[in-house]
Amino acid sequence: MKFSAEVKDHTLKRLEGHRSGRTTRAVTRVETWMVEDYFSKGEVRGHTIECDEPLERGGSDRGPAPLEYFLAALAFCQQSFLANNAALLGLSLDSVRMRVKGYFDPRGGQVEGITNRGFDEIRSEILIESSEPVNRIVQAVELAERQCYLLNTVCRSTRIDESVFLNGDLIRRKEFQPANTA
């Protein structure tokens, strides 16, 4: 997939704004409401989204569960920044897919004495198909990791094990450890 000139132009304008100090803080808004039982709806910039628990957790399975949205958001954020960087670097990517798994103890906060720690580990695989050289792919991935707001938020509290594959071959593995915020 080639990235349009508009993506590159938008990315360059945004970077100029950041570097000049004109943009120092942004806000993202969502609004959600409960419909019935576990089923909820939300609105994001005019888009309606639906959320529910699967049948085995008592939901009606009318949409992804909250934790699934969370993991999807992590992947979407990294892919957005990967697109920015691929456009800036002039890379041609045939395909980009991510697989993300979050591991947690479902008893946390539900059973006396077991603390809810949220995800204790997230494993992600970035699957890229491209004829570009490995070092250029790694460069784009590393820039996206540094820039992705969600990845950097999650990395403060959860270990993330990330693997990058190019044309089916593992080219890089990286472990993000929670930052010491004390």
Give an account of the 3D structure.
This protein has 182 residues and is α+β, with helices and mostly antiparallel strands. The chain is 34% helix and 30% strand. Helix 1 (5-20) packs across helix 2 (66-89) and helix 2 packs across helix 3 (134-147). The longest helix has 24 residues, at 66-89.
Q: Return the domain count.
A: 1
The CATH superfamily is known as K homology (KH) domain
Give the overall form.
globular
- Strand count: 7
Number of helices: 4
Q: Taking strands numbered 1, 2, ... along the chain, how are they ordered across the largest sheet?
A: 4-5-6-7
Helix content: 25-40%
Assign the CATH class: Alpha Beta
Rounded to the nearest angstrom, the radius of gyration is: 19 Å
Sheet with the most strands, sense and barrel status: 4 strands, mixed
Q: Kindly report how far apart the N and C termini lie.
A: 43 Å
Q: Percent of residues in beta strands? A: 25-35%
Query: Which structural class should the secondary elements be placed in?
Result: alpha+beta
SSE pattern: HEEEHEEHHEE
Which CATH architecture is right? 2-Layer Sandwich
Mean pLDDT: 92
Low-confidence stretches: none
CATH topology call: GMP Synthetase, Chain A, domain 3
